[in-house]
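Researcher: Let's do a round of design. I'm pasting the structure tokens now; please hold your answer until I've finished.
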């Protein structure tokens, strides 16, 4: 390991502390499903408030809103009288329990009820070590979200981001709500451009510890890492192909920043772009057939796309004269990006079918958008009320939420894939 840089194995140890709920949700969705969450039986004795984590997750999505509970705790075996919940205009009711097992683990159980139809929608059990209680809560929220909306939940996924505090840079891996953040890497030199592998086991990133930009692949579970690109000149902006077999990056082998394809297991780079301009920030379309990237070949930075094997590029963004940081959604419908408007950097989303582009934020220092794997939300970094912030926003721009994050300058978030 290079002196001055430490890589840490990620564990659940930090999860044993009580969660700090910093759910700052602004905006109102067009339709929000009202759900009541009864206190989980035995939950008050657990190190994590599972029911509160579930509620915070669901509210952050913007599609569900919590109805105040009636009475005391209810577990998954209860046959609740649904009339009082119906009077409170709840459409759904979640009950459950948190039980400590003889081996020290906790069993998180839940049951979901359709209050309007008086139907039992089923439930599940998650026996987990104490360090995974938050993860179990997120999985409960995922199940509830999918049952009630039809879309897959993303609460048990993870986000990576970089912070700078003083002279130290940290690469963090956190829950999708920003809690339980753990440092994957600490360095006195800049760390930039973290990118999750498709299976969520690795993070590619750029480190300056060699006094030049070098790309590493970091195994999240073990903390081990390996060199991906340390070619002559600059190595930056890594992007994994959807099948995980390739990484496309920006290299300056020929003197100019161009896109190159690298085998994920090593080997010689293959040049994809052949321009005399700066081509950078590649991002694969979800089908792996197309690469979006930023180029100033038209005189100012704009977003283009080309076949994944290289070839003719077509311009994608036409609103504004400075558009960067493309992030396609997993369903192939949207492209999030940052546009400079009158000196302000704002988050935009482009409907790839209609070509319609819309601003999502009223802030002025947005950067590095990254779609959730269900295509419903975007995480990005910004400055809000003079503070660095990690934010999520729904694709329609109606619901924003500030996530928990480390102190210092917050940069370059990347939303990881569904957990497998």
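Researcher: That's everything. Go ahead.
Model: Designed sequence:
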């Amino acid at each position: 390991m290079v002196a001055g840089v430490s890589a840490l194995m990620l564990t659940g140890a930090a999860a044993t502390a009580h969660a700090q709920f910093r759910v700052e949700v602004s905006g109102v969705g067009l339709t929000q499903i009202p759900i009541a969450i009864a206190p989980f039986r035995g939950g008050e004795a657990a190190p994590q408030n599972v029911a509160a984590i579930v509620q915070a997750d669901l509210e952050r999505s913007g599609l569900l809103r919590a109805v105040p509970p009636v009475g005391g705790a209810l577990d998954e075996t209860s046959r609740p009288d649904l009339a009082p919940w119906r009077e409170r205009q709840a459409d759904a009711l979640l009950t459950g329990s948190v039980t400590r097992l003889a081996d020290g683990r906790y069993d998180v159980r839940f049951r979901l009820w359709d209050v309007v139809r008086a139907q039992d929608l089923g439930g599940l059990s998650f026996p987990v070590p104490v360090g995974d209680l938050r993860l179990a809560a997120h999985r409960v929220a995922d199940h509830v979200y999918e049952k009630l909306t039809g879309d897959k939940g993303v609460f048990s996924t993870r986000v990576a981001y970089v912070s700078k505090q003083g002279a130290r840079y940290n690469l963090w891996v956190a829950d999708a709500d920003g809690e339980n953040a753990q440092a994957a890497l600490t360095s006195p030199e800049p760390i930039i451009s973290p990118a999750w592998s498709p299976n969520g086991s690795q993070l590619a990133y750029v480190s300056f510890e060699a006094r030049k930009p070098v790309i590493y692949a970091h195994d999240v579970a073990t903390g081990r890492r390996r060199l991906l690109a340390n070619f002559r000149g600059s190595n930056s902006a890594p992007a994994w192909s959807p099948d995980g077999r390739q990484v496309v990056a920006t290299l300056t082998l020929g003197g100019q920043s161009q896109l190159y394809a690298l085998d994920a297991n090593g080997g010689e780079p293959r040049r994809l772009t052949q321009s005399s301009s700066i081509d950078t920030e590649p991002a694969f379309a979800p089908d792996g057939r197309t690469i979006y990237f930023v180029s100033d070949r038209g005189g100012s930075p704009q977003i283009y796309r080309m076949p994944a094997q290289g070839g003719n590029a077509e311009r994608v963004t036409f609103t504004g004269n400075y558009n960067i940081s493309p992030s396609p959604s997993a369903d192939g419908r949207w492209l999030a990006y940052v546009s400079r408007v009158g000196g302000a950097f704002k988050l935009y989303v482009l409907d790839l079918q209609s070509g319609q582009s819309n601003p999502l934020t009223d802030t002025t220092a947005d950067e590095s958008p990254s779609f959730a794997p269900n295509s419903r939300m975007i995480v990005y970094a910004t400055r809000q009320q003079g503070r660095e912030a990690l934010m999520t926003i729904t694709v329609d721009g109606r619901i924003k939420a500030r996530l928990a994050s480390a102190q210092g300058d917050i940069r370059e978030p990347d939303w990881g894939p569904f957990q497998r």
